[in-house]
Protein backbone atom coordinates (compact mmCIF):
# COMPACT_ATOMS: atom_id res chain seq x y z
CA UNK A 1 0.00 0.00 0.00
CA UNK A 2 2.90 2.31 0.73
CA UNK A 3 4.34 1.55 -2.71
CA UNK A 4 1.01 2.34 -4.40
CA UNK A 5 0.63 5.54 -2.38
CA UNK A 6 4.15 6.78 -3.18
CA UNK A 7 3.81 6.01 -6.89
CA UNK A 8 0.52 7.89 -7.11
CA UNK A 9 1.80 10.84 -5.08
CA UNK A 10 4.75 11.03 -7.48
CA UNK A 11 2.34 11.03 -10.44
CA UNK A 12 0.27 13.78 -8.78
CA UNK A 13 3.34 15.88 -8.02
CA UNK A 14 4.57 15.71 -11.61
CA UNK A 15 1.28 15.83 -13.47
CA UNK A 16 1.30 19.62 -14.01
CA UNK A 17 4.60 19.30 -15.90
CA UNK A 18 2.49 18.06 -18.84
CA UNK A 19 4.89 15.21 -19.60
CA UNK A 20 2.12 12.73 -18.81
CA UNK A 21 -0.67 13.72 -21.20
CA UNK A 22 -3.18 10.97 -20.39
CA UNK A 23 -6.03 11.45 -17.89
CA UNK A 24 -5.22 9.94 -14.47
CA UNK A 25 -7.65 8.46 -11.95
CA UNK A 26 -5.83 8.06 -8.66
CA UNK A 27 -6.64 5.44 -6.03
CA UNK A 28 -5.15 7.43 -3.14
CA UNK A 29 -7.33 6.49 -0.14
CA UNK A 30 -8.47 3.22 -1.78
CA UNK A 31 -5.24 1.23 -1.62
CA UNK A 32 -6.43 -1.49 0.76
CA UNK A 33 -9.09 -2.69 -1.68
CA UNK A 34 -6.60 -3.40 -4.47
CA UNK A 35 -3.87 -4.77 -2.23
CA UNK A 36 -6.16 -6.93 -0.09
CA UNK A 37 -7.89 -8.59 -3.04
CA UNK A 38 -4.78 -9.11 -5.19
CA UNK A 39 -2.88 -10.69 -2.30
CA UNK A 40 -5.57 -13.35 -1.98
CA UNK A 41 -4.79 -14.59 -5.51
CA UNK A 42 -2.37 -17.20 -6.79
CA UNK A 43 -0.30 -17.54 -9.92
CA UNK A 44 -2.52 -18.16 -12.95
CA UNK A 45 -5.45 -16.14 -11.59
CA UNK A 46 -6.61 -13.24 -13.74
CA UNK A 47 -7.57 -9.68 -12.93
CA UNK A 48 -9.43 -7.09 -15.00
CA UNK A 49 -9.25 -3.46 -13.96
CA UNK A 50 -10.94 -0.17 -14.77
CA UNK A 51 -10.16 3.48 -15.52
CA UNK A 52 -8.78 3.59 -11.93
CA UNK A 53 -6.14 0.98 -12.63
CA UNK A 54 -2.83 1.99 -11.01
CA UNK A 55 -3.36 0.27 -7.66
CA UNK A 56 -4.52 -2.97 -9.29
CA UNK A 57 -1.56 -2.99 -11.67
CA UNK A 58 0.93 -2.38 -8.88
CA UNK A 59 -0.74 -4.82 -6.48
CA UNK A 60 -0.38 -7.48 -9.18
CA UNK A 61 3.31 -6.58 -9.34
CA UNK A 62 3.13 -5.06 -12.82
CA UNK A 63 6.45 -3.57 -13.91
CA UNK A 64 6.83 -0.01 -12.58
CA UNK A 65 9.09 1.22 -15.41
CA UNK A 66 6.57 -0.01 -17.99
CA UNK A 67 3.71 1.71 -16.13
CA UNK A 68 5.39 5.09 -15.84
CA UNK A 69 6.62 4.91 -19.44
CA UNK A 70 3.08 4.08 -20.55
CA UNK A 71 1.82 7.19 -18.80
CA UNK A 72 4.39 9.20 -20.75
CA UNK A 73 3.24 7.68 -24.06
CA UNK A 74 6.64 6.09 -24.65
CA UNK A 75 7.52 2.96 -26.64
CA UNK A 76 8.77 1.29 -23.45
CA UNK A 77 5.27 1.53 -21.94
CA UNK A 78 3.38 -1.64 -21.06
CA UNK A 79 1.34 -1.31 -24.26
CA UNK A 80 3.86 0.66 -26.26
CA UNK A 81 2.63 4.07 -25.15
CA UNK A 82 -0.68 3.69 -26.99
CA UNK A 83 -3.09 3.62 -24.06
CA UNK A 84 -1.87 5.51 -21.02
CA UNK A 85 -3.14 5.30 -17.46
CA UNK A 86 -6.54 3.74 -18.18
CA UNK A 87 -5.22 0.83 -20.25
CA UNK A 88 -2.50 -0.60 -18.02
CA UNK A 89 -1.87 -4.29 -18.41
CA UNK A 90 0.66 -6.84 -17.22
CA UNK A 91 -0.67 -10.15 -18.56
CA UNK A 92 2.49 -11.97 -17.45
CA UNK A 93 1.52 -11.05 -13.88
CA UNK A 94 -2.18 -11.77 -14.25
CA UNK A 95 -3.43 -8.20 -14.83
CA UNK A 96 -4.92 -9.06 -18.19
CA UNK A 97 -6.41 -5.68 -19.09
CA UNK A 98 -7.75 -2.39 -17.77
CA UNK A 99 -10.94 -1.20 -19.41
CA UNK A 100 -12.07 2.42 -19.14
CA UNK A 101 -15.56 1.61 -20.42
CA UNK A 102 -17.39 1.53 -17.08
CA UNK A 103 -18.54 -2.05 -16.49
CA UNK A 104 -16.18 -3.43 -19.16
CA UNK A 105 -14.15 -5.48 -16.72
CA UNK A 106 -17.17 -7.58 -15.73
CA UNK A 107 -18.02 -9.54 -18.90
CA UNK A 108 -14.31 -10.09 -19.56
CA UNK A 109 -13.73 -11.69 -16.14
CA UNK A 110 -16.95 -13.67 -16.51
CA UNK A 111 -15.67 -14.87 -19.88
CA UNK A 112 -12.29 -16.03 -18.60
CA UNK A 113 -14.08 -17.70 -15.68
CA UNK A 114 -16.32 -19.55 -18.15
CA UNK A 115 -13.25 -20.62 -20.12
CA UNK A 116 -11.50 -21.83 -16.94
CA UNK A 117 -14.63 -23.63 -15.83
CA UNK A 118 -14.88 -25.44 -19.19
CA UNK A 119 -11.18 -26.30 -19.03
CA UNK A 120 -11.63 -27.67 -15.52
CA UNK A 121 -8.59 -25.84 -14.16
CA UNK A 122 -8.74 -24.09 -10.80
CA UNK A 123 -8.04 -20.53 -11.88
CA UNK A 124 -10.00 -17.60 -10.53
CA UNK A 125 -10.96 -14.39 -12.35
CA UNK A 126 -11.51 -11.01 -10.73
CA UNK A 127 -13.42 -8.01 -12.06
CA UNK A 128 -12.73 -4.75 -10.25
CA UNK A 129 -15.29 -1.99 -10.74
CA UNK A 130 -16.83 1.02 -9.00
CA UNK A 131 -20.19 1.57 -7.32
CA UNK A 132 -21.60 3.13 -10.53
CA UNK A 133 -21.25 -0.19 -12.31
CA UNK A 134 -23.95 -1.79 -10.16
CA UNK A 135 -26.33 0.51 -12.10
CA UNK A 136 -25.37 -1.10 -15.39
CA UNK A 137 -27.14 -3.99 -17.07
CA UNK A 138 -23.89 -5.81 -17.77
CA UNK A 139 -23.36 -6.46 -14.05
CA UNK A 140 -26.78 -8.12 -13.72
CA UNK A 141 -26.45 -10.16 -16.92
CA UNK A 142 -23.01 -11.37 -15.90
CA UNK A 143 -24.03 -12.12 -12.31
CA UNK A 144 -27.03 -14.11 -13.51
CA UNK A 145 -24.90 -16.19 -15.87
CA UNK A 146 -22.03 -16.62 -13.40
CA UNK A 147 -24.39 -17.95 -10.70
CA UNK A 148 -26.18 -20.23 -13.16
CA UNK A 149 -22.86 -21.78 -14.21
CA UNK A 150 -21.12 -21.55 -10.79
CA UNK A 151 -18.27 -19.64 -12.42
CA UNK A 152 -15.04 -18.98 -10.49
CA UNK A 153 -15.27 -15.18 -10.56
CA UNK A 154 -15.07 -12.40 -7.96
CA UNK A 155 -17.07 -9.27 -8.62
CA UNK A 156 -15.20 -6.65 -6.60
CA UNK A 157 -17.05 -3.35 -6.15
CA UNK A 158 -14.91 -0.53 -4.74
CA UNK A 159 -17.66 1.61 -3.29
CA UNK A 160 -16.21 5.11 -2.96
CA UNK A 161 -19.71 6.62 -2.76
CA UNK A 162 -19.40 8.69 -5.96
CA UNK A 163 -19.65 8.39 -9.71
CA UNK A 164 -17.64 11.47 -10.71
CA UNK A 165 -19.63 14.21 -8.86
CA UNK A 166 -22.86 12.29 -8.25
CA UNK A 167 -23.34 10.69 -4.84
CA UNK A 168 -24.73 7.21 -4.45
CA UNK A 169 -27.89 8.49 -2.78
CA UNK A 170 -28.88 10.37 -5.97
CA UNK A 171 -28.28 7.31 -8.12
CA UNK A 172 -29.53 4.27 -6.27
CA UNK A 173 -32.28 3.44 -3.77
CA UNK A 174 -31.35 3.61 -0.09
CA UNK A 175 -30.34 0.00 0.58
CA UNK A 176 -27.03 -1.74 1.10
CA UNK A 177 -25.29 -2.18 -2.25
CA UNK A 178 -24.75 -5.87 -1.60
CA UNK A 179 -28.56 -6.36 -1.64
CA UNK A 180 -28.42 -6.35 -5.45
CA UNK A 181 -26.85 -9.80 -5.19
CA UNK A 182 -29.81 -11.45 -3.48
CA UNK A 183 -32.12 -11.52 -6.51
CA UNK A 184 -29.43 -13.34 -8.46
CA UNK A 185 -28.73 -15.86 -5.70
CA UNK A 186 -25.22 -14.43 -5.68
CA UNK A 187 -23.14 -14.67 -2.49
CA UNK A 188 -22.16 -11.25 -1.23
CA UNK A 189 -20.08 -9.74 1.50
CA UNK A 190 -19.68 -6.10 2.54
CA UNK A 191 -16.30 -5.23 3.98
CA UNK A 192 -14.52 -2.20 5.40
CA UNK A 193 -12.54 -1.49 2.26
CA UNK A 194 -9.95 0.57 4.15
CA UNK A 195 -8.96 -2.39 6.31
CA UNK A 196 -6.43 -4.39 4.28
CA UNK A 197 -6.62 -7.42 6.57
CA UNK A 198 -10.42 -7.53 6.43
CA UNK A 199 -10.32 -7.25 2.64
CA UNK A 200 -7.69 -9.99 2.40
CA UNK A 201 -9.76 -12.30 4.60
CA UNK A 202 -13.01 -11.71 2.67
CA UNK A 203 -11.25 -12.06 -0.68
CA UNK A 204 -9.65 -15.28 0.58
CA UNK A 205 -13.10 -16.71 1.39
CA UNK A 206 -14.42 -15.70 -2.04
CA UNK A 207 -11.39 -17.20 -3.81
CA UNK A 208 -11.81 -20.44 -1.89
CA UNK A 209 -15.48 -20.66 -2.91
CA UNK A 210 -14.61 -19.94 -6.53
CA UNK A 211 -11.81 -22.53 -6.64
CA UNK A 212 -14.04 -25.14 -5.03
CA UNK A 213 -16.59 -24.64 -7.82
CA UNK A 214 -19.15 -23.19 -5.39
CA UNK A 215 -19.59 -20.10 -7.54
CA UNK A 216 -19.08 -16.36 -7.73
CA UNK A 217 -19.09 -13.74 -4.98
CA UNK A 218 -19.82 -10.03 -4.92
CA UNK A 219 -17.49 -8.16 -2.57
CA UNK A 220 -18.55 -4.62 -1.71
CA UNK A 221 -15.54 -2.77 -0.32
CA UNK A 222 -16.51 0.53 1.32
CA UNK A 223 -13.85 3.17 0.72
CA UNK A 224 -13.29 6.76 -0.42
CA UNK A 225 -11.18 8.56 -3.00
CA UNK A 226 -9.34 11.51 -1.55
CA UNK A 227 -8.66 13.51 -4.69
CA UNK A 228 -10.73 14.56 -7.70
CA UNK A 229 -12.35 11.90 -9.87
CA UNK A 230 -9.85 12.49 -12.65
CA UNK A 231 -6.64 14.38 -12.09
CA UNK A 232 -4.10 15.07 -9.35
CA UNK A 233 -5.91 17.76 -7.33
CA UNK A 234 -8.24 18.02 -4.36
CA UNK A 235 -11.68 19.31 -5.38
CA UNK A 236 -13.87 19.48 -2.29
CA UNK A 237 -14.31 23.23 -2.92
CA UNK A 238 -16.60 22.33 -5.83
CA UNK A 239 -19.27 21.48 -3.28
CA UNK A 240 -20.38 18.03 -4.47
CA UNK A 241 -19.20 16.60 -1.15
CA UNK A 242 -18.46 18.19 2.21
CA UNK A 243 -15.10 18.85 3.74
CA UNK A 244 -16.39 17.11 6.90
CA UNK A 245 -17.14 13.91 4.98
CA UNK A 246 -13.71 14.00 3.38
CA UNK A 247 -11.96 14.59 6.72
CA UNK A 248 -13.88 11.74 8.36
CA UNK A 249 -12.58 9.40 5.65
CA UNK A 250 -9.03 10.75 5.92
CA UNK A 251 -9.19 9.57 9.53
CA UNK A 252 -9.79 6.08 8.16
CA UNK A 253 -6.60 6.09 6.06
CA UNK A 254 -5.88 2.49 5.05
CA UNK A 255 -2.13 2.96 5.36
CA UNK A 256 -2.28 4.52 8.82
CA UNK A 257 -4.47 1.66 9.94
CA UNK A 258 -2.08 -1.06 8.85
CA UNK A 259 0.96 0.93 9.92
CA UNK A 260 -0.38 1.25 13.49
CA UNK A 261 -1.08 -2.48 13.60
CA UNK A 262 2.39 -3.36 12.37
CA UNK A 263 3.99 -1.10 14.98
CA UNK A 264 1.74 -2.55 17.71
CA UNK A 265 2.73 -6.06 16.75
CA UNK A 266 6.41 -5.16 16.64
CA UNK A 267 6.57 -6.02 12.94
CA UNK A 268 7.68 -2.54 11.82
CA UNK A 269 10.16 -0.05 13.26
CA UNK A 270 10.61 3.62 12.38
CA UNK A 271 14.01 2.81 10.87
CA UNK A 272 12.64 0.00 8.71
CA UNK A 273 9.83 2.26 7.54
CA UNK A 274 12.23 5.07 6.64
CA UNK A 275 14.48 2.76 4.70
CA UNK A 276 11.47 1.29 2.88
CA UNK A 277 10.33 4.80 1.90
CA UNK A 278 13.85 5.70 0.74
CA UNK A 279 14.15 2.53 -1.38
CA UNK A 280 10.73 2.97 -2.94
CA UNK A 281 11.31 6.67 -3.63
CA UNK A 282 14.60 5.91 -5.39
CA UNK A 283 12.91 3.21 -7.45
CA UNK A 284 10.09 5.58 -8.43
CA UNK A 285 12.52 8.39 -9.34
CA UNK A 286 14.43 5.97 -11.55
CA UNK A 287 11.19 4.94 -13.30
CA UNK A 288 10.37 8.58 -14.10
CA UNK A 289 13.92 9.24 -15.34
CA UNK A 290 13.78 6.19 -17.60
CA UNK A 291 10.33 7.14 -18.91
CA UNK A 292 11.43 10.67 -19.73
CA UNK A 293 14.52 9.39 -21.56
CA UNK A 294 12.63 6.76 -23.60
CA UNK A 295 11.61 7.42 -27.21
CA UNK A 296 8.11 8.32 -28.36
CA UNK A 297 6.52 5.89 -30.85
CA UNK A 298 7.18 6.47 -34.55
CA UNK A 299 4.14 8.35 -35.92
CA UNK A 300 4.19 6.02 -38.94
CA UNK A 301 3.03 3.20 -36.60
CA UNK A 302 -0.07 5.07 -35.37
CA UNK A 303 -2.53 2.90 -37.29
CA UNK A 304 -1.01 -0.40 -36.14
CA UNK A 305 -3.25 -2.54 -33.87
CA UNK A 306 -6.27 -0.34 -34.71
CA UNK A 307 -7.83 -2.34 -37.56
CA UNK A 308 -8.26 -6.08 -37.60
C1 LIG B 1 -20.02 3.14 -20.15
C2 LIG B 1 -19.41 4.39 -19.61
N1 LIG B 1 -20.20 5.39 -19.19
C3 LIG B 1 -19.65 6.52 -18.69
C4 LIG B 1 -18.30 6.68 -18.63
C5 LIG B 1 -17.67 7.95 -18.04
N2 LIG B 1 -17.15 7.65 -16.71
C6 LIG B 1 -15.87 7.35 -16.51
S1 LIG B 1 -15.53 6.98 -14.92
C7 LIG B 1 -17.14 7.26 -14.47
C8 LIG B 1 -17.57 7.11 -13.03
C9 LIG B 1 -17.53 5.71 -12.61
O1 LIG B 1 -17.84 5.66 -11.23
P1 LIG B 1 -17.53 4.35 -10.44
O2 LIG B 1 -17.89 3.16 -11.26
O3 LIG B 1 -18.19 4.48 -9.12
O4 LIG B 1 -15.94 4.35 -10.31
P2 LIG B 1 -15.01 5.43 -9.60
O5 LIG B 1 -14.63 6.42 -10.67
O6 LIG B 1 -15.77 6.07 -8.51
O7 LIG B 1 -13.84 4.66 -9.15
C10 LIG B 1 -17.91 7.61 -15.56
C11 LIG B 1 -19.34 7.92 -15.50
C12 LIG B 1 -17.50 5.61 -19.09
N3 LIG B 1 -16.16 5.66 -19.06
N4 LIG B 1 -18.07 4.48 -19.56
MG1 LIG C 1 -17.37 5.32 -7.41
Automatic annotation (TrEMBL):
Residue ranges of every copy of the Dehydrogenase E1 component domain listed in the record: 4-299
Residue stretches in coiled coil: none
SUPFAM superfamilies xrefs: Thiamin diphosphate-binding fold (THDP-binding)
Keywords: Oxidoreductase, Thiamine pyrophosphate
Reactions mediated catalytically: N(6)-[(R)-lipoyl]-L-lysyl-[protein] + pyruvate + H(+) = N(6)-[(R)-S(8)-acetyldihydrolipoyl]-L-lysyl-[protein] + CO2
UniProt cofactor(s): thiamine diphosphate
InterPro entries: DH_E1 (IPR001017), PDH_E1_Alpha_Subunit (IPR050642), THDP-binding (IPR029061)
GO biological process, one term: pyruvate decarboxylation to acetyl-CoA
GO molecular function: pyruvate dehydrogenase (acetyl-transferring) activity
UniProt superkingdom: Bacteria
Function: The pyruvate dehydrogenase complex catalyzes the overall conversion of pyruvate to acetyl-CoA and CO(2). It contains multiple copies of three enzymatic components: pyruvate dehydrogenase (E1), dihydrolipoamide acetyltransferase (E2) and lipoamide dehydrogenase (E3).
Protein name: Thiamine pyrophosphate-dependent dehydrogenase E1 component subunit alpha
Amino acid sequence: MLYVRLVEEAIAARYAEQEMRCPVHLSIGQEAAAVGVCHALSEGDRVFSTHRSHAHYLAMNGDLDAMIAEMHGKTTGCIGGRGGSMHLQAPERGLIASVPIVGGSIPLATGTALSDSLDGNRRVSVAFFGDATLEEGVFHESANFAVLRSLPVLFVCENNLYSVYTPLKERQPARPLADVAHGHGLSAETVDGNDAEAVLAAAGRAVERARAGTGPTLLVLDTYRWREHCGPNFDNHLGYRTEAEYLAWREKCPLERSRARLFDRGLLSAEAEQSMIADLTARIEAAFDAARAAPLPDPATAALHVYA
